[in-house]
Structure prediction request, 333 residues.
Amino acid sequence: MIKMNNRRLVSVGLVLVLGVVFSVTNEFFLTSRNIFLLLRDCANIGLVTLGVVCVMVSGGVDLSAGGIICLVGVVTARVSLIPGIPGIVVVLIAVAAGAVCGFINSMIILKLHLSEFVTTLATGLVFTGLALLTTFRENGRLATVLLTNRSFLTFGTRFNEIYYVSIAWLVLTVIMQFMFTKTRLGLYISALGSNPKAARMSAIGYDRVKITGFVLCGAFSALSAAFMVAFQSSTTQLLGVGMEFQAIAACVVGGVVLGGGKGDALSAFLGTIFLIMIRNGLYKWGLSHGGFTMLQGVLIILIANFDTLFGTLVKKRSLRRAAEREVKDIEQQ
Prediction:
Protein backbone atom coordinates (compact mmCIF):
# COMPACT_ATOMS: atom_id res chain seq x y z
CA MET A 1 0.00 0.00 0.00
CA ILE A 2 2.85 2.39 0.86
CA LYS A 3 4.43 1.69 -2.49
CA MET A 4 1.27 2.48 -4.38
CA ASN A 5 0.66 5.68 -2.41
CA ASN A 6 4.20 6.91 -3.04
CA ARG A 7 4.01 6.00 -6.74
CA ARG A 8 0.71 7.83 -7.04
CA LEU A 9 2.21 10.94 -5.46
CA VAL A 10 4.85 10.84 -8.18
CA SER A 11 2.12 10.73 -10.87
CA VAL A 12 0.21 13.60 -9.27
CA GLY A 13 3.43 15.61 -8.96
CA LEU A 14 4.25 15.09 -12.64
CA VAL A 15 0.80 16.30 -13.68
CA LEU A 16 1.04 19.39 -11.46
CA VAL A 17 4.56 20.29 -12.61
CA LEU A 18 3.56 19.85 -16.25
CA GLY A 19 0.49 22.03 -15.75
CA VAL A 20 2.56 24.81 -14.18
CA VAL A 21 5.22 24.70 -16.93
CA PHE A 22 2.70 24.91 -19.78
CA SER A 23 0.65 27.58 -18.00
CA VAL A 24 3.70 29.79 -17.56
CA THR A 25 5.09 29.26 -21.07
CA ASN A 26 1.82 29.58 -23.01
CA GLU A 27 -0.95 32.08 -22.31
CA PHE A 28 -3.57 29.94 -24.09
CA PHE A 29 -3.01 26.78 -22.05
CA LEU A 30 -4.94 27.73 -18.90
CA THR A 31 -7.96 29.19 -20.68
CA SER A 32 -11.40 27.70 -20.02
CA ARG A 33 -11.79 26.75 -23.69
CA ASN A 34 -8.51 24.83 -23.74
CA ILE A 35 -9.30 23.08 -20.45
CA PHE A 36 -12.63 21.79 -21.77
CA LEU A 37 -10.98 20.68 -25.02
CA LEU A 38 -8.25 19.03 -22.97
CA LEU A 39 -10.88 17.14 -20.96
CA ARG A 40 -12.59 16.01 -24.17
CA ASP A 41 -9.35 14.65 -25.59
CA CYS A 42 -8.57 12.99 -22.26
CA ALA A 43 -12.01 11.38 -22.22
CA ASN A 44 -11.69 9.87 -25.71
CA ILE A 45 -8.54 7.97 -24.79
CA GLY A 46 -9.42 7.80 -21.09
CA LEU A 47 -12.44 5.57 -21.70
CA VAL A 48 -10.23 3.13 -23.59
CA THR A 49 -7.67 3.29 -20.79
CA LEU A 50 -10.31 2.35 -18.21
CA GLY A 51 -10.84 -0.88 -20.12
CA VAL A 52 -7.19 -1.57 -20.84
CA VAL A 53 -6.25 -1.16 -17.17
CA CYS A 54 -8.60 -4.03 -16.25
CA VAL A 55 -6.60 -6.35 -18.50
CA MET A 56 -3.18 -5.00 -17.51
CA VAL A 57 -3.75 -5.22 -13.76
CA SER A 58 -4.78 -8.85 -14.19
CA GLY A 59 -1.38 -9.47 -15.78
CA GLY A 60 -2.45 -9.36 -19.43
CA VAL A 61 -2.34 -7.08 -22.43
CA ASP A 62 -4.94 -6.11 -25.06
CA LEU A 63 -3.72 -4.86 -28.42
CA SER A 64 -7.13 -5.10 -30.09
CA ALA A 65 -8.69 -1.94 -28.64
CA GLY A 66 -7.91 0.10 -31.77
CA GLY A 67 -9.47 -2.56 -34.01
CA ILE A 68 -12.55 -2.70 -31.79
CA ILE A 69 -12.95 1.07 -32.02
CA CYS A 70 -12.63 0.95 -35.80
CA LEU A 71 -15.20 -1.83 -36.15
CA VAL A 72 -17.65 -0.41 -33.61
CA GLY A 73 -17.37 2.97 -35.33
CA VAL A 74 -18.80 1.41 -38.50
CA VAL A 75 -21.45 -0.52 -36.53
CA THR A 76 -22.48 2.64 -34.68
CA ALA A 77 -22.74 4.70 -37.84
CA ARG A 78 -24.82 2.09 -39.65
CA VAL A 79 -27.15 1.51 -36.69
CA SER A 80 -27.69 5.25 -36.25
CA LEU A 81 -29.05 5.41 -39.81
CA ILE A 82 -32.02 3.20 -38.84
CA PRO A 83 -35.04 5.54 -39.01
CA GLY A 84 -36.39 6.58 -35.61
CA ILE A 85 -33.85 4.71 -33.48
CA PRO A 86 -33.10 6.55 -30.20
CA GLY A 87 -29.54 7.70 -29.63
CA ILE A 88 -29.20 5.85 -26.33
CA VAL A 89 -30.11 2.59 -28.09
CA VAL A 90 -27.39 3.24 -30.67
CA VAL A 91 -24.84 3.71 -27.87
CA LEU A 92 -26.01 0.57 -26.04
CA ILE A 93 -25.72 -1.49 -29.24
CA ALA A 94 -22.21 -0.10 -29.76
CA VAL A 95 -21.17 -1.05 -26.21
CA ALA A 96 -22.68 -4.52 -26.66
CA ALA A 97 -20.74 -4.97 -29.92
CA GLY A 98 -17.52 -4.02 -28.15
CA ALA A 99 -18.27 -6.39 -25.28
CA VAL A 100 -18.76 -9.23 -27.78
CA CYS A 101 -15.36 -8.45 -29.32
CA GLY A 102 -13.80 -8.60 -25.86
CA PHE A 103 -15.56 -11.88 -25.15
CA ILE A 104 -14.19 -13.34 -28.40
CA ASN A 105 -10.68 -12.34 -27.30
CA SER A 106 -11.08 -14.07 -23.95
CA MET A 107 -12.51 -17.26 -25.48
CA ILE A 108 -9.63 -17.59 -27.94
CA ILE A 109 -7.11 -17.09 -25.12
CA LEU A 110 -8.77 -19.49 -22.68
CA LYS A 111 -9.92 -22.22 -25.05
CA LEU A 112 -7.04 -22.26 -27.52
CA HIS A 113 -4.43 -21.45 -24.86
CA LEU A 114 -2.81 -18.75 -26.97
CA SER A 115 -0.90 -15.84 -25.48
CA GLU A 116 -2.81 -12.60 -24.95
CA PHE A 117 -0.25 -10.66 -26.97
CA VAL A 118 -0.60 -12.84 -30.07
CA THR A 119 -4.36 -13.24 -29.74
CA THR A 120 -5.22 -9.56 -29.37
CA LEU A 121 -2.70 -8.54 -32.02
CA ALA A 122 -4.42 -10.92 -34.45
CA THR A 123 -8.00 -10.08 -33.48
CA GLY A 124 -7.20 -6.38 -33.69
CA LEU A 125 -6.27 -6.92 -37.33
CA VAL A 126 -9.41 -9.01 -37.88
CA PHE A 127 -11.66 -6.34 -36.36
CA THR A 128 -10.00 -3.63 -38.46
CA GLY A 129 -10.41 -5.76 -41.57
CA LEU A 130 -14.10 -6.30 -40.83
CA ALA A 131 -14.50 -2.56 -40.43
CA LEU A 132 -12.93 -1.94 -43.84
CA LEU A 133 -15.15 -4.59 -45.45
CA THR A 134 -18.36 -3.22 -43.96
CA THR A 135 -17.68 0.51 -44.09
CA PHE A 136 -19.58 2.85 -46.38
CA ARG A 137 -18.78 2.65 -50.07
CA GLU A 138 -19.84 4.51 -53.16
CA ASN A 139 -19.19 2.97 -56.58
CA GLY A 140 -16.84 0.50 -54.91
CA ARG A 141 -14.77 3.19 -53.21
CA LEU A 142 -14.64 4.16 -49.55
CA ALA A 143 -17.04 6.98 -48.83
CA THR A 144 -17.84 9.27 -45.90
CA VAL A 145 -21.50 9.44 -44.90
CA LEU A 146 -22.64 12.28 -42.66
CA LEU A 147 -24.99 11.09 -39.93
CA THR A 148 -28.22 12.97 -39.27
CA ASN A 149 -29.68 11.17 -36.25
CA ARG A 150 -29.94 14.14 -33.88
CA SER A 151 -30.77 11.97 -30.90
CA PHE A 152 -27.47 10.15 -31.33
CA LEU A 153 -25.40 13.17 -32.39
CA THR A 154 -26.32 14.85 -29.10
CA PHE A 155 -23.79 12.55 -27.41
CA GLY A 156 -21.04 14.38 -29.29
CA THR A 157 -22.09 17.80 -28.05
CA ARG A 158 -21.68 19.70 -24.79
CA PHE A 159 -23.59 20.39 -21.61
CA ASN A 160 -22.91 24.10 -21.09
CA GLU A 161 -19.16 24.04 -21.82
CA ILE A 162 -18.19 20.48 -20.85
CA TYR A 163 -18.58 17.70 -23.40
CA TYR A 164 -20.80 14.73 -22.54
CA VAL A 165 -17.90 12.37 -23.18
CA SER A 166 -15.91 14.17 -20.47
CA ILE A 167 -18.77 13.77 -18.00
CA ALA A 168 -19.05 10.07 -18.85
CA TRP A 169 -15.31 9.58 -18.38
CA LEU A 170 -15.20 11.30 -15.00
CA VAL A 171 -18.25 9.41 -13.69
CA LEU A 172 -17.02 6.04 -14.96
CA THR A 173 -13.57 6.64 -13.47
CA VAL A 174 -15.16 7.05 -10.04
CA ILE A 175 -17.24 3.91 -10.55
CA MET A 176 -14.26 1.86 -11.73
CA GLN A 177 -12.08 3.09 -8.87
CA PHE A 178 -14.78 1.94 -6.46
CA MET A 179 -14.79 -1.42 -8.26
CA PHE A 180 -11.02 -1.79 -7.93
CA THR A 181 -10.83 -0.81 -4.26
CA LYS A 182 -14.15 -1.89 -2.71
CA THR A 183 -15.40 -4.98 -4.56
CA ARG A 184 -14.34 -8.60 -4.85
CA LEU A 185 -13.94 -8.28 -8.60
CA GLY A 186 -11.31 -5.58 -8.16
CA LEU A 187 -9.53 -7.68 -5.56
CA TYR A 188 -9.62 -10.74 -7.82
CA ILE A 189 -8.25 -8.78 -10.80
CA SER A 190 -5.30 -7.55 -8.73
CA ALA A 191 -4.74 -11.00 -7.21
CA LEU A 192 -4.69 -12.58 -10.65
CA GLY A 193 -1.96 -10.20 -11.76
CA SER A 194 0.06 -10.57 -8.55
CA ASN A 195 0.20 -14.38 -8.54
CA PRO A 196 -1.64 -16.20 -11.37
CA LYS A 197 -0.73 -19.69 -10.08
CA ALA A 198 -2.04 -18.98 -6.60
CA ALA A 199 -5.16 -17.41 -8.09
CA ARG A 200 -5.84 -20.55 -10.11
CA MET A 201 -5.57 -22.72 -7.00
CA SER A 202 -7.73 -20.46 -4.83
CA ALA A 203 -11.46 -19.76 -4.88
CA ILE A 204 -10.95 -17.05 -7.50
CA GLY A 205 -12.63 -17.95 -10.78
CA TYR A 206 -9.63 -17.51 -13.10
CA ASP A 207 -11.58 -17.83 -16.35
CA ARG A 208 -14.41 -15.64 -15.12
CA VAL A 209 -12.06 -12.81 -14.09
CA LYS A 210 -10.16 -13.00 -17.39
CA ILE A 211 -13.38 -12.88 -19.38
CA THR A 212 -14.66 -9.94 -17.35
CA GLY A 213 -11.45 -7.98 -17.95
CA PHE A 214 -11.53 -8.40 -21.72
CA VAL A 215 -15.28 -7.74 -21.93
CA LEU A 216 -14.83 -4.50 -19.99
CA CYS A 217 -11.97 -3.51 -22.26
CA GLY A 218 -14.11 -4.11 -25.34
CA ALA A 219 -17.10 -2.28 -23.87
CA PHE A 220 -15.11 0.81 -22.85
CA SER A 221 -13.36 0.93 -26.22
CA ALA A 222 -16.74 0.74 -27.93
CA LEU A 223 -18.15 3.53 -25.76
CA SER A 224 -15.24 5.75 -26.77
CA ALA A 225 -15.93 4.90 -30.43
CA ALA A 226 -19.62 5.84 -30.07
CA PHE A 227 -18.76 9.24 -28.60
CA MET A 228 -16.16 9.93 -31.31
CA VAL A 229 -18.58 9.01 -34.09
CA ALA A 230 -21.24 11.23 -32.53
CA PHE A 231 -18.78 14.13 -32.32
CA GLN A 232 -17.54 13.72 -35.91
CA SER A 233 -21.01 12.92 -37.30
CA SER A 234 -19.33 10.16 -39.29
CA THR A 235 -16.74 7.40 -39.07
CA THR A 236 -13.53 6.67 -40.96
CA GLN A 237 -11.33 3.67 -41.59
CA LEU A 238 -8.67 5.36 -39.42
CA LEU A 239 -10.86 5.67 -36.34
CA GLY A 240 -9.07 4.19 -33.34
CA VAL A 241 -5.74 3.58 -35.09
CA GLY A 242 -2.99 3.47 -32.46
CA MET A 243 -5.30 4.20 -29.53
CA GLU A 244 -4.50 0.87 -27.89
CA PHE A 245 -0.85 1.94 -27.59
CA GLN A 246 -1.83 5.35 -26.21
CA ALA A 247 -3.99 3.62 -23.60
CA ILE A 248 -1.16 1.26 -22.61
CA ALA A 249 1.23 4.22 -22.42
CA ALA A 250 -1.21 6.11 -20.18
CA CYS A 251 -1.48 3.11 -17.86
CA VAL A 252 2.30 2.75 -17.59
CA VAL A 253 2.78 6.48 -16.96
CA GLY A 254 0.06 6.36 -14.31
CA GLY A 255 1.85 3.60 -12.41
CA VAL A 256 0.23 0.39 -13.65
CA VAL A 257 2.83 -2.38 -13.49
CA LEU A 258 3.31 -4.16 -16.83
CA GLY A 259 3.47 -7.55 -15.15
CA GLY A 260 0.15 -6.97 -13.41
CA GLY A 261 -0.99 -6.83 -9.82
CA LYS A 262 -0.55 -3.09 -9.26
CA GLY A 263 -2.76 -0.30 -10.57
CA ASP A 264 -6.35 0.87 -10.71
CA ALA A 265 -8.68 3.34 -12.41
CA LEU A 266 -7.06 6.32 -10.70
CA SER A 267 -3.68 5.26 -12.09
CA ALA A 268 -5.19 5.17 -15.59
CA PHE A 269 -6.86 8.54 -14.96
CA LEU A 270 -3.61 10.27 -13.93
CA GLY A 271 -1.65 8.71 -16.78
CA THR A 272 -4.23 9.83 -19.33
CA ILE A 273 -4.18 13.41 -18.07
CA PHE A 274 -0.38 13.45 -18.14
CA LEU A 275 -0.08 12.21 -21.74
CA ILE A 276 -2.84 14.38 -23.18
CA MET A 277 -1.55 17.41 -21.28
CA ILE A 278 1.89 16.85 -22.82
CA ARG A 279 0.37 16.55 -26.30
CA ASN A 280 -1.75 19.65 -25.84
CA GLY A 281 1.14 21.72 -24.51
CA LEU A 282 3.73 20.54 -27.02
CA TYR A 283 1.41 21.22 -29.95
CA LYS A 284 1.13 24.78 -28.68
CA TRP A 285 4.93 24.89 -28.71
CA GLY A 286 4.86 23.81 -32.35
CA LEU A 287 6.00 20.18 -31.93
CA SER A 288 4.68 17.84 -34.63
CA HIS A 289 2.60 14.71 -34.10
CA GLY A 290 5.63 12.62 -35.00
CA GLY A 291 7.63 14.27 -32.25
CA PHE A 292 4.94 13.56 -29.70
CA THR A 293 4.71 9.92 -30.80
CA MET A 294 8.45 9.52 -30.30
CA LEU A 295 8.18 11.18 -26.90
CA GLN A 296 5.54 8.64 -25.87
CA GLY A 297 7.97 5.81 -26.50
CA VAL A 298 10.74 7.55 -24.57
CA LEU A 299 8.39 8.19 -21.64
CA ILE A 300 7.38 4.53 -21.44
CA ILE A 301 11.04 3.46 -21.28
CA LEU A 302 11.93 6.08 -18.65
CA ILE A 303 8.93 5.48 -16.42
CA ALA A 304 9.12 1.69 -16.68
CA ASN A 305 12.77 1.94 -15.63
CA PHE A 306 11.83 4.31 -12.81
CA ASP A 307 9.18 1.87 -11.57
CA THR A 308 11.73 -0.94 -11.54
CA LEU A 309 14.21 1.11 -9.53
CA PHE A 310 11.45 2.42 -7.27
CA GLY A 311 10.22 -1.10 -6.56
CA THR A 312 13.75 -2.28 -5.81
CA LEU A 313 14.30 0.55 -3.34
CA VAL A 314 11.00 -0.12 -1.57
CA LYS A 315 11.80 -3.84 -1.35
CA LYS A 316 15.25 -3.14 0.11
CA ARG A 317 13.74 -0.77 2.65
CA SER A 318 11.18 -3.38 3.69
CA LEU A 319 13.88 -6.03 4.11
CA ARG A 320 16.03 -3.63 6.12
CA ARG A 321 13.15 -2.81 8.45
CA ALA A 322 12.35 -6.49 8.89
CA ALA A 323 15.99 -7.18 9.79
CA GLU A 324 15.97 -4.30 12.28
CA ARG A 325 12.84 -5.69 13.94
CA GLU A 326 14.47 -9.11 14.26
CA VAL A 327 17.53 -7.56 15.89
CA LYS A 328 15.33 -5.68 18.37
CA ASP A 329 13.42 -8.85 19.22
CA ILE A 330 16.67 -10.71 19.85
CA GLU A 331 17.99 -7.89 22.06
CA GLN A 332 14.77 -7.84 24.10
CA GLN A 333 15.04 -11.58 24.69
Q: What stands out?
A: Residues 2-332 form a domain with the ABC transporter involved in vitamin B12 uptake, BtuC fold (CATH 1.10.3470). The mean pLDDT is 87. Strands lie at 137-138, 141-142, 158-159, 162-163.
